[in-house]
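Figure 2 data, in text form.
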Amino acid sequence: MAPKTSRRSYTAKFKLTAVVCVVENGNRAAGWHFSISEKLVRNWQMASEKIRAMKSTKKADRGNKARWRAREAGLRSWVLAQRTEGRLLSTVQVLLKAHTLSQVQMVQPLDIANNRSFKCVLLRLWEAWMTDGEHTYTPSGHMRRASFGEVAKWIQEAWAAVSVSTITAAFRKAGLIECAAVCDAEAESSSDSEIDECDEAMLQAEV
């Protein structure tokens, strides 16, 4: 077993030198000679072709690039701001902040205005079923809930009831599409009127 040393980075030139030593003397002897672990020697030997293509002074080989660069940049800015203010951060706090940033990167349901119009129609269909629909009851006298097929029909009917202008205006407000100024004015007027009706209906339902 090679002697224990502190963790450090190695240049591509050093790694290739160790690989050459492996070919001549073996993994264990190369590890002892360069005071590194045998596992490192094996890894460098398997990645020798990739190391040869690297710059001789390059050390780190961190693999693939980050998938969510903007999210990580935002997290880094937040951590630096907290440290500037003298606040201590735990790993849990950083993970929770990363989770929050991952949620706000995507469009939230409330950003799409046509959701309220859709829910308004769905609420009316449910109320109609509660008052006029055919119901079955359990042996203890409790009313059974609507079947999945019935709910699926409500969803289809509620979505079909939402006008195209409302959907267009909702997508524009969420920043998903860009419309001409004239189309914007017409879409906003249609969307606002439907949303007001929906708010009134939902408020009455809550009361």
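Caption note: The mean pLDDT is 77.
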